From TrEMBL:
Parts forming coiled coils: none
Catalytic activity: Hydrolysis of terminal non-reducing beta-D-galactose residues in beta-D-galactosides
GO BP: any one term: carbohydrate metabolic process
Protein name as catalogued: Beta-galactosidase
Cited PROSITE patterns: GLYCOSYL_HYDROL_F35
One Gene Ontology molecular-function label: beta-galactosidase activity
Keywords, in A-Z order: Glycosidase, Hydrolase, Signal
Amino acid sequence: MFHQYTYTFPDHYFPDHYREGFCVFMEISSTVGYDSRAVLIHGQRTLLLSGAIHYARSTPAMWPELMRQSKEAGLNTIETYVFWNLHERERGVFDFSERLDLFRFCEVAEQYGLYVILRIGPYVCAEINYGGLPTWLRDVPDMAIRTYNQPFMREKERWVRFLVDYMRPLLAPNGGPIILAQLENEYENIANRYGADGQHYLRWVSELGQSLNLGIPLVMCEGATAGAIETMNGYYAHSMLEQHTFQHPDQPALWTENWTGWYDTYGYPHHIRTPQDVAYAVARFVAAGGTGVNYYMWHGGTNFGREAMYLQTTSYDFNAPLDEFGQPTTKLRHLAHLHQILTDYAELLLTNERAQPQSLGEMQVAYTYASEHYTLTFLCNDAPLPTNCTWNEEQVSLPAHSVLLLVNGRLAFNTSDIATTHVVQRDAQPLEQLISEVVWSAEPLPSAWPTALRSIVTADKPREQLALTHDNTDYCWYSITFSTLADEEGILSLIGFADVAHIFIDGQFYATTPTPLIENRGSFDGSAFTQSFSLSLAAGEHELTILSCAMGLIKGDWMINANMVQERKGLWGHARWNSTVLEGPWSMQPGLVGEQTAFFAAGGALVDWQLASVEAFEKPLRWWRLTFERPQTAGPYAVDLGSMQKGMAWLNGRCIGRYWLAAATGEHESWQKNIIFAQGTDDPTQRYYHLPYEWLQDKNTLVLFEELGGDPTSVSICTVPETEIN
């Protein structure tokens, strides 16, 4: 069966600033469709080799080089999610500027001859704050997210229609690069939770998609309804092909997310996946009949500002083929060789129907695609050990978990063999004597705030943090007075709390939340939302002050076993000293003085900064300002925060993200065994933080809000060059 999409659009769909060149769009318009074998562009089956690059996780100056390297590595498509939470931080106020210029990002891809897959969502997961949904949805009455709920569907439809109209000039029928669009994302993860209402909602999503009149096919990964191509996610997709073909005999096999590594969370080791395993997965999928692969991530980039999900590091490197800074890795060079062969023989692959497997052993198979002039054979070993087999009456050695690609019987590529010339190694190198000044200012406890800045809320019970901050800050203070009858050691317990608590007693720092925290915490009534601290207190009255620090919002329901609208931060339960519940009143103050007065930007000019001294080191609640000249050494650049502990960082007024030097002591996920490997155990999960080149000036200001205490004089600016391999 052949599916073709075309579209005739009214003139008003083009934003005014894109009307110029309208005829160009029309002259190069194309039809996009699909059959059971592949996506069709201009009626021709097309092998899609795609890479995920998220525009918001890089900067516009990086985009041309990211696209150029992607094209040179053999990709023909770029995939990106669309981040509703970043474009509409405030309801009705839209931002498509700078790194949020999605239109320009797609145009740059087109300039380098790349198609675009637009994953609209607007729920996207993606390890981004609230899964890509704006947090103001929580304040909409009667809201329930991602189920058949009128308030949610109304807001979602409003946003999706606005976005589609804005991007319509770049859809393929209108001459643009966008060939596929996705609505919703991985619904199977929550389908059981919402049952019939969930399926009703999915059908509504499909109807919404059809009503948009995009003129290109819709896709839905991991759970789709009629009218959309169902696609696959995972480390390996060849094992899903048989079921996919049975369920969707008229659809091509498209792999939306081939996970090139895994994301990192604070307190856990860095995750890596070998280049050999990624190449094996791709070759194995194409051998069995797959004709569309998207690497997730191809370039992960950086979670700037407060944009990372709960516990996710500021780095979103993902062990991707293009690293966090946009530089090529061993993985990229190894995959580029595979892409060259697949592209050279794409016509051979696509002209033929899916090859039938020929058994070579218990876990070894061969697939052959042949024409009058060429044969392309995939010899596949799915076993974890090497083996020998017979092919064309010759003995062939197959490495463990590998695919050998033979062209006319001769070896063209071995997924397990990395050429010496493809190996890349990089290490951060400090740039000596670059920082010229280090000064500091204190962040006061709420009792010492200037009256004009106070917005203290008083209540008998503590109030959940997001109800006070609306996620406009990570920070919220909780204060209460209580008494002890005698000098005693005891346990302070916070029952119903998230995420990180810094404990102050009578103005002195006493304790902080131990690490590692748990990513998927379960029920709000469970142990993951209880924290305890051992304290020694003198007899008398004490003021307990808690600085609650949010670490990003969840990305999906399963992380809290509740609808996303119920996400919570701070203290909503109660505090207990030993067995005694501390009775109110509670005083609550959202934010920091330094945030409200912008110590990190223009407000810093009004601060009475003090010169760095030993007495200020290792003290909590310090704002540090470091100045440095523009580096003269070639980039990319990062700041080494190995001497600090936890806080936020700004470069020339722009927030580069949260930092946390939590040791990577958490245990590895068992389900990823033999696929994902831990690196840097016991070291900080993230030590180096990206300083984008285009954010630098001739004289630069780096501001750190340090929550716990550190030595900023040991902070250094680094370059991250390719180094020689001995």
